[in-house]
Amino acid sequence: MRLPRPVKAEFIVRNSQFDERLDARSVSFAGLLDFSGTNFVKGADFSDAQFAGPFIFAAATTGRGASTLFRFASFTGAAVFARAHLKGDTLLTGAEFHDTARFRKVAFAGRAFFGYSSFDRAADFARATFSGSASFGGTDFGSVANFAKASFRKNTAFTGARFAGTATFDEAEFKAQRRRISRVPGFVGSSQRTRPTAFGGVSFNGGASFLYATFEREAIFNDAQALQGVDFEGARFDRSASFTTVRFRGDTDLSHALLNRRVDFTQAVLHLLDLDGVTVGDKTVVVLPDPARRIGHLDDLRLDADEMIGPIEAGSPDAQIRQLKLVESAARSAGDRDAANKALVRRLTLNRYTESWWFHPVDWAFGWEISGYLIKWQKPACALLALVVLGILLRLARWNWKARVRVLRWLTWWKIRVPVLTRIRPRSNEAVPEKQIWVATKRSVVNLVRFKIEDRTALAWLETASQKLLVLVLLLTLGNVWPPVHDLLNGIVG
User: Fold this and answer.
1) Are strands 68-69 and 145-146 parallel, antiparallel or unpaired?
2) Could you tell me which of 307, 305, 301 has the C-alpha nearest to residue 288?
3) 425: nearest Cα among 398, 460, 403
């Protein structure tokens, strides 16, 4: 059915049915156009149409698979699509809405394309359902945009969109598409792959709110910009979320959010990042801007471990380890070296008790008591001093019989046997002279600073290698806790 053009009078067709496809391409409507409750069995085409008055499509329906086209249409008056059920594809590419646009509770059964359209005033998509792909790429929202409780069930793209006013996505659902393909030979099996929810390059000039939104698929916010705050409080990210190279000048609120996978803020510029009360999963990794690389910037970080779901002092060891990882990552990104090191020590200590029985004593002896997890510099320093004293005692035991006897008595009292000492022949039965003590001390200390070994024995080689290893561990530990040593080591290695 072809409408005449132009239509100068009001055109009202309510609760009716068009059995043929309605063709209104390039038609100019001077007055009210009302299709409330009308059923378009084969769809309608309003491409390039001009609507000078209000356009009412409320509760209208289309036939299954029938497309509805509004490409490059111009709506001067209010456009009302509330509660419409569009069973085919809906194309509003390049459409211009100069007054309010109401799409509340609209059911888009097919694909919905709003790419490069413009909304001069408020756009209301609250509780709308997008069963097919939803594309808002390059769309210009000149005022507030409301997508509260909207449901996006397939591919969703807002790439390059601009929101001049507040963008509201509170309790919106970005669901993952799951298609089942029969496992027949020669065909591909079931696939769970989905395209990410794309907000890349979006401009939130009036701020954005994603309160308690659900992202079942990967969320991409790369290159997004916001002049005001972006609120993700209580949001749930089932997949990874990428915020690389974003520029959020207001507060970024992720408090009480559920983070199940990697959340990446690499190269991001953030004013304040709020992570209070976040819940982390087994595979959660939070990557914050690294101030040392001078790529990205974070002015302030808010993270109170005591307010996290399942506080660190309580809960299972695995939950505590995940939360300590987040605290460590956040503190290190904020430049708080002490807090990051404390979280690392606590995490490694908890991890020791969760490993197998044989790993526990090995980690305690070498990881903690000797190396101090490369955080406690006192541990390798004491181990190095003990090694020097042990070297002196072993040399005196070898050189003098009486010293050997005293050492053996002491070792016997502790029920420790050193077979190599029983093969050493004493040189004299006299007491250890002061000269021998000085020489033994000198050789043990000198081995710390040079590689040439005066005592060419297996014990001397072992002593030298152990000393050099402990010196290296001590330097690495000092580099982790003392910035000047850290910069010096970076300069040597780099």
Assistant:
1) unpaired
2) 301
3) 398
- In tens digits, the chain (494 residues) has pLDDT values of 788 778 888 999 999 999 999 999 999 999 999 999 999 999 999 999 999 999 999 999 999 989 999 999 999 999 999 999 999 999 999 999 999 999 999 999 999 999 999 999 999 999 999 999 999 999 999 999 999 999 999 999 999 999 999 999 999 999 986 554 444 444 444 444 568 899 999 999 999 999 999 999 999 999 999 999 999 999 999 999 999 999 999 999 998 899 888 888 888 998 888 888 888 777 777 887 766 666 778 887 777 654 443 434 434 566 566 667 767 766 666 566 776 777 777 777 777 766 777 777 787 778 778 887 778 888 888 888 888 888 877 777 766 655 555 556 655 555 555 554 444 444 443 444 556 777 778 777 777 776 665 556 677 778 778 888 888 888 888 877 777 766 666 666 65
C-alpha gyration radius of the chain: 36
Of residues 67, 61, 82, 59, the one with CA closest to residue 21: 67
Q: In the chain, what are the domain boundaries?
A: 1-135, 378-493
